[in-house]
Amino acid sequence: MSKIKKLFIDSEDGTHLEVYCYEEGKVRILIDDFNGEHFINLDISTSIAFSKELRREINVAKEPF
Q: Average pLDDT of the chain?
């Protein structure tokens, strides 16, 4: 298992979003904003479903209104 975290920083308000594996078969999303830290823990199947939904929403967002 690799020890890699991806950190995304919002350019408008400085919110940090990290995505990493915290345990075998578990993915954690950490959101650190002005209200504090918030964790979302996902198993593999839920992570895959979330990824597919995120891709769908990205495609919708790319379409002109």
A: 91
For the chain, what is the domain count? 1
Tokens standing for residue 29: 């999303």
Give the domain extent around 48: 6-62
Walk across the sheet containing 26-33 and list its strands: 6-9, 16-23, 26-33, 36-43
Using the predicted structure, report yes or no on whether residue 46 has a pLDDT greater than 60: yes
Structural domain includes residue 1? no
Residue 33 resides in a domain: yes
- Measured CA to CA, the distance from residue 1 to residue 52 in angstroms comes to 23
pTM (predicted TM-score): 0.77
Token digits of residue 42: 């996902």
For the segment 17-26, the average pLDDT, to the nearest whole number, is 91
Contact between 27 and 17 under an 8 Å Cβ cutoff? The reply is no
